[in-house]
Amino acid sequence: MRQSILSFVAVYAVVLCTSSCNGGSTSVPNLNTGSQAQFKQIERLGRPAVKELFQQFANHDGTNKTAPWQLPVSGQTLYQEIGSFTTSVAGRDAAHAATLQAILIPDEIAADLSKSGSAAYLGVETGGATGGTFGGRGLPDDVIDISLGAVFGNTLSALGLIPDDGKESPCLTTDNVPQKNAQDNVTPAVFPYAGAPH
Amino acid sequence: MTSRSGALGSGLAALALVLTAVLYNVLPVRGSDHQDSPAVVARPAADITDVFVYPAGDNPSNVVLQMDVSPLLTPANASQAALDPAVLYQFKIAHGAAAGPEDMAIQVQAIGAGPTQTIAVFGPFAPVAGTVSTVGPLSGTVAFNSTSAAALANGMRVFVGPRADPFFFDLFQFFSFLPDRNYQTAGASPKAPFSFKFPAPAGAFASCVQGTPNDALSSNSFNVLSIVIEAPRSLIAPASGSQVIHLWATTSTVSGT
Question: Does residue A189 lie in a domain region?
């Protein structure tokens, strides 16, 4: 019933708005404000390829229904699985696992809006080593190769974060799929940037 | 002839629907976050595939927040796809040097079903941090799938509609050695050979699997629904506070399913 009421109120607000303010005015009576409808989280996503690489599928639903900053972070299933995957499946040492845990949790994408230049995934965390200090995540960013390099390659030791453990897996350091803006119709200088559908 | 064309058209439409269902349910493409849990497989328009944050290409004073949902839209069904009006879509932002609880949210909710729906945008505002949310103050509305909607009064430009999935990854090779990450083979153990495909493996890669890498999303012409919000940087990170933001996206329903 709450949902029905909310929907009615929302529709009413839009009907009021349509003729006079479609496209931007805030002068519309805001009938949604103060609504007590409680929306419960069923999915979340921050950094790409974190849940997907490190976490068993069976645990995704639980992660999706929690906040990425949930304390203590060391108690998060995702935090624990970054550790266990890195040392067991990827075969890296404990320092490697701990460094990945420290970088990736909380699972939120960092961006420094005071910086100019292009987006570069993990740019804030690495001081610009991935291509710029804005960080964030751009449409062309090869987040898979960046992530694979950090987990299976020598990215972390090359950055001086930890000694090289000598346990790289070269065959897993890239998927060999390059980004092609044209392939996905991306228009980097024209809103809405993401490309027209296939 | 007319009736035959009509019958053929109906048949093709039915076939397209079946193929769409088959593609979504049988062809698992869970990449960055595609088809991430049973809950979102059952409610694909709540299934977040990717989150982006990047400087606006047409105005360096602006920043773009983008959330993609509804994976595996074929060209045929992309034109019919729309947001789920029962879902509250949220960008959540924490400010400061360290990641932490959200102190800002921007919400999107669809009014009505199908591509004629209207998109309501709420915020940015200071939410109650956590996994239970209420709707914030309305900032304005735009038509679904309009690339030319006027900016909202707070300076935000908003687009919601079908876009080519920009994610790129050799998903099927990934599933070949980590089959658990494919929701249809969840629980399976890692499987050798542990390798992506290399066109001409040599040197350090000499032992890798030789083959042609495949971007499963582009090669299958898959689309998503993109929620793109371009906002003044000063709106997302006011000068009085930290310019470092930490971003994630969520989808929520009243029922929690």
Answer: no
Kindly report, residue by residue over B65-78, the tens digit of the pLDDT.
999 999 999 999 99
Tell me if chain B has a CB within 8 Å of the CB of A5.
no
* Residue A196: strand, helix, or coil: coil
Condensed to tens digits (0 to 9), the pLDDT of residues A149-183 reads 999 999 999 999 999 999 999 999 999 999 887 88
CA of A126, closest CA in chain B: separation in Å? 14
pTM, 2 dp: 0.86
Q: Distance (Å) from the C-alpha of residue A3 to the closest C-alpha of chain B?
A: 7
User: Quick one: which H or E segment has residue B50?
Assistant: strand B48-55
Q: Do A183 and B154 count as a contact with CB atoms less than 8 A apart? A: no
Residues in chain B with CB shorter than 8 Å from the CB of A3 are: 86, 254-255
Task: Tell whether A119 is within 8 A of chain B (Cβ).
Answer: yes
- Residue of B112, B115, B150 lying closest to A12 (CA atoms): B112
Q: Do A43 and B112 touch (CB under 8 A)?
A: no
Contacts of B99 in chain A (CB under 8 A): 68-69, 106, 108, 110
Both A101 and A144 in one domain: the answer is yes
Contact A89 B111 (CB under 8 A): no
CB contact under 8 A, A176 and B47: no
Same structural domain, A58 and A147: yes
Question: In chain A, how many domains are there?
Answer: 2
**Confidence at residue A35, expressed as pLDDT on a 0 to 100 scale:** 61
User: For residue B27, how many C-alpha atoms fall within 13 Å in the half-sphere facing its CB?
Assistant: 16
Range of the domain at A33: 1-39
A175/B244 touch (CB, cutoff 8 Å), yes or no: no
* Domain, as residue range, for B190: 171-210
Same domain, B119 and B229: yes
Query: B51 phi and psi, to 5 degrees?
Result: -130, 135
Q: Are residues A88 and A135 in the same domain?
A: yes
Nearest chain A CA: its distance from B3 CA (Å): 30
* A30 plus A106 within the same structural domain: no
Q: What is the ipTM of this complex?
A: 0.87
For residue A83, is pLDDT > 50?
yes
Residue with structure tokens 């669809």?
B110
In this structure, the answer to whether residues B81 and B105 fall within a common structural domain is: yes
Contacts of A194 (CB under 8 A, 6+ apart): A139, A184, A186, B66, B68, B163, B164, B166, B226, B228
Q: Poorest-confidence range of A21-30, A99-108, B140-149, B163-172?
A: A21-30
